[in-house]
Amino acid sequence: MANIIKLNQENLTEIAKRIPCPTYNRNNIKTGIVHVGIGGFHRAHEAFYTDQLLHDESITDWGICGVALLDFDTKIYKTLKKQDGLYTLIIKELDGSLTKRVIGSIVECLFAPENPTMVLEKMASPDVKIITLTITEGGYNYNEATRSFDFTNPQIQYDLNHPKTPKTIFGYLTQALKLRKERGVKGCTIQSCDNIQGNGHMTKKMLLSYVQKAEPELTSWIELNVSFPNSMVDRITPATSTTDISNLKEISGIEDAWPVVCEPFKQWVIEDNFSAGRPAWQTVGAQFVQDVVPYEKMKLSLLNAGHTVLGILGALMGYDTIDQSVHNPQISEFLKNYMDVEVTPTLGHLEGVDLDSYKQSLLQRFGNIYIKDQIDRICSESSAKFPIFVLPTVYSQLKKNGSLAFASLVIAAWAIYSLGKDEHGKPLTIKDAMETTLNKKAIESKENPRAFLEIETIFGKLKDEETFVNAFTNAYKKIENNGIEKCVIELNNKSFKNK
Ligand code: CS2
């Protein structure tokens, strides 16, 4: 490729000669959505759907303003700002080919730590009808031990004392909604796009807890004017590697400081509950349904939990990527068993979904060797993921006296993983807000395995469930004595005999 072109609005016509670019006039697009959390997932998912939609020239109201909320987000903010909100989406197809396109739906970018007022004004703007969120599973400030909003979080305390310059999403949403109310601006929709069962319910519950303390008189206005649709979101989006960046430059001649890579599959199932109107995302493949709960449950407990199973077992065995893990025949057999024996009985009937082919397709997606989804990414923030992805299956199985063996082995493997080394003695990179506690409890577990289950913010009251505690303790001891692979094989064999 002769010349290298920098990705930005000015160069878009030139870039369009190389890869597909937005053909709509971005200058005509008004912001109708404020999105908080402009990481890879948002850019592979909602922003992608919205970009597709904006290619219908009659639609000009649904541009996205991307908000970077945390100091940590400086880099993505600066990158997108410099590139006029543009970035390349690189879809890694199953046959290894790459489908690339420039996405143009993020028409504005704001950096909250630099200018909180601007973010508040944007969220309060009458043009803005929807505020969408990808703030991660841990971002909802939910405490599993108390089953309520965590007011002990120092950032929340900060927001309560500095309402005009907040730091957390709760401070922002509260002030923005307050402005809307005071100015007579209509309500809006707050739509979570995170992997949480009942993500809309969770957002509403957590926000209202905060509001009741910060601005109690706003509560009834929110109840009447703001909707919180639940949704199920799906597209595997690994972290972008330096090779992805340099390949784009070498092969297509495009200099993009932060392209996004993802799988071809995508799904978005949304409850049709928007208090101020919404884009016709159904025309570009999203599904609007009355009740999204069964879909969420299916996705979280099969796909996300599947990831966790492959990630934790794979990490202990020394693998780096999810495809390596699932290509170990014993691990993939284990995952199939886990899904069939322990998860499927908890799901009930899902109208219009063929569960067998869904599970089959997951194995294929996990096995995509071009995605190279990092086990480090999957295992990161496990303390927020286990309670959502894996533990609901444990609770359901406990209730009906069902099998717990597979889930218990994974949880025991996580306790051993939290010691910080794989089975070959190689250090593991553990990225977790609760890293210190996890490690401390993991060390205690060497003497007394059930100590790990005492982390109440993760396990709630599970430590009192003898059936589970026994299964966990047995699994823990077996892994210590025989190594993870032998335990996986043993359970697979047992399950085979029972079939
Ligand atoms: C992953 C998800 O973070 C995780 O543990 O399971 O990021 C997953 O890739 C997405 O939810 C796919 O939709």
From TrEMBL:
All residue ranges annotated as the Mannitol dehydrogenase N-terminal domain in the record: 32-282
Keyword Nucleotide-binding: no
PROSITE patterns registered for this protein in UniProt: MANNITOL_DHGENASE (PS00974)
Taxonomy, superkingdom: Bacteria
Mannitol dehydrogenase C-terminal domain segment(s): 291-479
The entry's keywords: NAD, Oxidoreductase
GO biological process, one term: mannitol metabolic process
Any one GO molecular-function label of the UniProt entry: oxidoreductase activity, acting on the CH-OH group of donors, NAD or NADP as acceptor
UniProt family annotation: Belongs to the mannitol dehydrogenase family. UxuB subfamily.
Protein name: Mannitol dehydrogenase family protein
